[in-house]
Amino acid sequence: MRIWDINPGYLNRQSLLGEHRELHGIVSIIENNKKGYSNHPETLRWVGYPWALQQRHLLLSAEMRLRGFTDKTPVLIDGNTGVWPPTYIDEPFNQFQILETKYLTKQPGRISLPKNAQQLWSQHKYSILARNINLYREIGREVANIKPNQEFSKLARVLTEQLRIQPLRGGMINALQHMWSYVSAHSSVSEVEFASWSPSRLLTEIQQLSLSNEVSYLSQSTALSELEVWVNKLNT
Question: How far is the C-alpha of 75 from the C-alpha of 230, rounded, in Å?
Fold first, then answer.
């Protein structure tokens, strides 16, 4: 039983759907006081964090939709809003290592497992831009000074935890506009029409154009699925 902390884009099909099932299992155990796996470390880690479980489920669902799956089983629990479990079963950096071993003879996830800090940053940069432009600039400078063979466990934890924060509307629009620049050439939409689009519609168009045209820089981005969760909140 495992709920990963890193972005669901790193999970292959089996792991993605498997975590989705196990998350529902944990919700059922906690909500219905079931005994099975009630003392499992993963279950205990999520006790008292129903909002965070719901958010993780939304992230899984967004990634599933991006890959063509339909999720018809929402998690409707809430409480302790905005707060995530403070502990990990395995640190985010170690989760990448676990998946690397696990996927040696299996299909990988949508996003390649990072080999160095530079690759990890490139995969997360638009997610961070949507949340904190100053941090975006700061991390960019720091990563430029990290050697390609240098361990990046601190960066992995910072990025994982930053993606738990809800972006502000302005930051999200800024990130989406940067992402749009990579796919705009594949679109027949005029600038006037584009300017009238909602963030939700813009993200949907970016997702479709990125995948249909194999725009690797965006198809390898955490933002391609995770921003959908927060864009939808702008409409609620």
Answer: 16
Q: What angle do CA 29, 69, 55 make, to 5 degrees?
A: 45
* DSSP string for residues in 3-38: ---S-GGGS-HHHHHHHHHHHHHHHHHHHHT--TTT
Count other C-beta atoms under 10 Å from residue 233's C-beta: 13
pLDDT by residue (tens digit) across 27-55? 999 999 888 888 999 999 999 999 999 99
DSSP string, 47-104: TT-HHHHHHHHHHHHHHHHHTT-----------STT---S--SS-HHHHHHHHHHHTT
Distance CA 8, CA 69 (A): 14
- What percent of the chain shows pLDDT beyond 70? 99
Determine the pLDDT at residue 173: 94
pLDDT of residue 191: 79
| Structure-block tokens of residue 141 | 């400078």
Tell me how far apart the alpha carbons of residues 141 and 135 are, in angstroms, rounded to a whole number: 10
Domain ranges of the chain: 8-92, 114-234
| pTM, full prediction | 0.96
Exposed, middle or buried, 63 (CB in 10 Å: 0-12/13-18/19+)?
buried
